[in-house]
Amino acid sequence: MTFAEYYRSNFRGDLEKVVxxxxxxxHFSEGAHETELQPRVISRHNQAVRLLxxxxxxxxxxxxxxxxxxxxxxxxxxxxxxxxxxxxxRYPKFKGDCPGACGHHxxxxxxxxALGKPPERNEWGVVEEYRRTxxxxxxxxxxxxxxxxxxxxxxxxxxxxxxxxLAAL
Length: 169
Hints:
Layout: H1 3-9, H2 11-20, E1 36-37, H3 47-50, H4 54-77, H5 82-89, E2 93-94, H6 109-115, H7 131-152, H8 158-168
Parallel strand pairs: 1-2
Helix pairs in contact: 4-6, 4-7, 4-8, 7-8
């Protein structure tokens, strides 16, 4: 399965399964506009994550990585548009584990470490297992971002937005 096929057909279902089977006690909240995830919620402590085959776990991790990245870029650099963006996307937030770190947003690359093997990082700080999937996913996500802003929020400069995403990788 390609990243594009996975992102468009299976990602949301896998995310829902992971959220529903979060290890107890958990600290995620589903409010009117957001779901919060923590490293231990997306780790192998979660049965839904353990049941994902390795190739699908990589697809899930990279899809979640880009989803959180896009949300964080919008909040950080396009804050005036964020309330509408948030309502349209309902993207999850990625925060540290409790106690102590649950109020702090983490960099999306920590998603890949939480999901996979011990963090053998390359020069970009990404778990090597996910490097190829990230490379395959980048042009797909670029198209997704451009299509989203063209169709849903044409007032946002998609080129400037994607440039910020790439800088945050």
